[in-house]
Give the backbone structure.
Amino acid sequence: MITLYPAASRFSANHGWLKSNFSFSFAEYYDPNNIGFGPLRVFNDDFVAPQNGFGAHPHNEMEIVSVVLKGQLQHQDSTGNKEVLRPGEVQRMSAGTGIIHSEENPSPDEEVNFLQLWFFPDQQGLAPSYEQKAYDQAGLKNNLLPVVSKRDANEQIAFINQDLTLYLSELEAGKSVSFKQEPGRKIYLFVIEGEVTLNEAHNLNKRDAARITEVTDLEIKTGTGASFMLIDLPGQ
């Protein structure tokens, strides 16, 4: 089953310095029928004004992944990490038993746009940890490039405490990629830019999403070009 969620169906909030779009229940938005998809609990598309951000705040028992699409995002946490995340990099933080962190846009004049995803970990009580990895942006071209994974983590793929793999892709006009998944798992697909068609039947545009179950073979094609994220998730 492929269920489409248009960009306009997301909950949007505008706080002036922060514009947010929530794909699942979060903060002031609560829908008991839209709590998550498998272990994917949060998928936020945030825009933060220059020299603004989220001050120090706590998290626990959650795997948090951030991907910057434009601009830069400065991370600082209670375990001593302080780094700036830019396009071409991915950040993974395991909140575990508890961590305090802040996220701010250090630029004096450029807005930052980033995606932040929260996943339930596959075990509780982990020690907090953090890593930031750069990936080969050329490897996105007409390819599904893994950037976060439990099974395949390496020097360019961030490790996560959940049986999932997060891929990024940039398709040129007229190109396609195929994805084959083990039975019983789920796929979440989010179009960052452009337009794609899934299995010749389902059309998605910029910021649209698809929640996919009981489909083991997926073809993703574009007529005009697209960038997107695909997440291979366990079926729980």
User: Anything to note?
Assistant: The longest strand covers residues 40-48. The radius of gyration is 17 Å.
